[in-house]
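Repro:
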Amino acid sequence: MLGGVETRSVSPVFVGRADELSALTGALGLVSGSALAPASPQTLLVGGEAGVGKTRLIEELLAEAGRRDAVVAVGGCVEVGADGLPFAPFSTALRALERRLPGRLAEAAEGQEDELARLLPELGRHPRSGHGRYDEEDTARLFELTVRLLERIAAERTVVLVLEDIHWADASTRHLLSYLFRTLRRGRLLCVATYRSDDVHRRHPLRPFLAEMDRLRTVQRLELTRFTRGEVRSQLAGILDAEPEPAVVDRVFDRSDGNAFFVEELARSMAEGSTCGLSDSLRDILLVRVEALSDDAQRVVRVVAEGGSTVEYGLLLAVVRLGEDDLIEALRAAVGANILLATQDGDGYRFRHSLAREAVSDDLLPGERSRINRRYAEVLEADPALVRRDERATRLAAYWYHASVPAKALPAVLRASVDARLRHAYSEQLRLLERAMELWDTVPDEIRAALRPLDHAEAYPACGCDPETTPLRFLDLMAEAAVAGRLSSERERALKITKRGRQLAVAEGDPLRAAWFSVECSRLVSALGRGDGWAELAEAQELVRGLPPSAVHAEVLAEAAGWRRLHTPGPDTLPIAERAVEYARMVGAEDIELRARFILGVLMVEAGDIDAGLAEMRAVRDRVVARGLPTLIGRIHVNLPAVLESVGRSQEAVDVMAEGIDLTHHYGLLDSEAWILGNLAESCYALGRWDEAHTAAERGLHIGLSPKPRGNAALRLALLALARGDAEAAARRLAAARAHFGENDPMPQSLLAMAAVAIGVAAAEGRVDEARAEFRRAAEAGLAPGSQRYAWPLLAAAASLEADTRGLPAADEGRAGALELIRRAARPLASSIPVWAAHERWVRAELLRAEDRDTAADWAEAAEAFEDVGFPYERAVVRLRWAQALLPSDRARAAELLRRADGTARRLGARRLSEEAALLAQSARVPLTEGTAAEPDPAAATRPGPALGLTPREEDVLRLVAAGRSNRQIAAALYISPKTASVHVSNILAKLSVSGRGEAAALAHRLRLFPADDRPAPA
């Protein structure tokens, strides 16, 4: 009855999984597109316990993909011991694509071959250490270029990318897969990843990844369950090619509990005569099958189990020490027994199922395991060409480590850590460095003395020591691990290493190293939201004080100057930057010198030496672009346009940002590109190109990876929404911006700008006290010299609030103190640049208006200052105020100013400003349409009600609302019922297009509808 099972343990009939297969093939259809729906990429996760049938389900999908002429690429996560190889499934899948589509991979990677060679060395030159600066965007750049590569390959043909066994994935592979799933937007690409759910315990590193994917609407997750009794019967029928007896089905179902792989093994075991007394342990069943093999075949199986997920034939031949004919016979027996399989490329062997490999590996004796690993290491060390170049260092390190030979393991682990760093696999670099630190004290002194920082470490800059004779120190490993932890987002681990390194350096009397660790600690504290990092930088400066110039000294000074420029700008930062440049030049640290020179250029501009400062910044930009330094290219094209905008050169800023967007896109610097887009929105706002500003900010918000560039984009959208009269949207965007920026690293450029928006939102909603409190918090924190770019708009918002609410009883209390605080905050601010001189005149006129002392001449002066500096919205506001001051004496000139203000407001979409211009024109009987005669009786302007569409009674009610009266008080004053007063108030709000009583009162005062001496007497 079971005779046929000896040659077939896998059912040729696909059993069950109809819903899951339908979901996969449905996704394949969406990827391919149709006449009714365009093609769109799809991403899926397929989970299930070991042996449940994930591989068979994927095989059915790939068969269907082949029938539809799709290109299939499969990559599996490779496990060597307990270690995963960096990016292994992606490297394998890309090689499969190259085999299926010869030349297409190189074509799609054109221009980025060397960077993408970190994933697939065949694409370009092997990455080499340039002893350059580490940066958080290195990995993001590689990930973005990888996604683009896949999108280009799948632009014209359907591609199915399967990544198997991601429960074994290294951290870098998980991060890349997460990035792919989150950012994939184009191409006919179906991406499927499989994992063993029973391995994903509560602390498994895949668990956070799965939780993140569950939050994405674009990722579909399938979880395979065990077979039912009926499905087990169907599986057995397929294996037997006959209907099984009910008793056999019951026995197999009871013992397998519906696990498909266990069903197959039980069926085979029963066929081989073990029809009674079957073990309930799958492990025992698998080992019985192995023990049934010849001695040579068992030996080969054990060696393969310890070699990794896949073992190359040449490597296996050298390790087992069998003759080639004997090895082939042993392999044939293992393959025939369905224990081993040949790999798809025909170059090696792997277990048919990972459960079998785990069972064999677990059965090895401790001495046996270390002996096999030692043999692998010796063979691979003697002939490195036996494995692929991108796997060589990691596998050799793993073999020596598991062979328990520290003297060999330490150098191998260090070489593997360098290889991981060069591939931007910083998580794997950190793990390897922690292993090296674990091995350090177990290695003989002569081995450690032969190691050199030049070969194994580059985080800590060279400080004049002879690289040929200076030995590697434990502190070098700690420095490498600290940086690797920061770059892999393992910041808590990095902070612990950094603090320990600083303490150890101080104990060893090495202030330079201690200062370097303090700088790293500053970065980590800031990134973790534990503070702004200044205390650590101050400590670093104390540690290097009085020491001769060095790269570390220059780094400390450059970091301090950069921090102070952002947090406490002022002229006393300039000498720090100058010394950083000088020291960096003296020691030949060009990367540090370029950063310090750029900071120096910014500070020169802020100190008033604009042309020289901009020239220095442009010179640095040209050098950085010529050298092709992606990190500095990104930062410079973020900051140079920002500085240009700060001196009123908005169009120049836009031109530089256009170049910056091209460069950052080319290098895959998404965070830098997002920063640039946020800054582009700011410059387009200043130029009056608000639709472009909105598009740029939305794009920046979409592509930004880190919180701060997204916060910058959200802040620009809040400002636009406020200017366009949508206070609700402005409040929503402002809340998002504040959430992105956080509270632990305050900087004027974000704090002051957010405060200005918050004041505008509160003022629009009639919350005067909250608006004043917002300004008070910002002003009391200090408006430092150099912050005028953000401080003047903040002061304008605060002064406009006081002017608009003049005469409003609810705002009378506290007005004098608020005006004095505005004047005091304005005194130290620079206004020598035309754009900020215009803002200064605007603030001055608003302060006079708040005290009812402004004249048409004050507004004329402010309007003239705004004529040539851009900012059309602000210019329109000033013109409206000028027109208001001219009324009723010069109605013709006022009408012209109102028409120009209204035209600008309509072009920009500034609804609130346009409505205010219309209401002022109506109340003053001034036409907004050119050629229409004005109301001949100026006295008519004293009765605003009819012009605003208000009845006389509603005019009386509005007058009392403006005086701060409640409905009950209005009713008493006008001898009407409170309900009637409430109806009148509702009608007034609708006619004035305002949202509440406070806004209606503020509007009445802003338009001077009711002179202060003409209020109704209290009831």
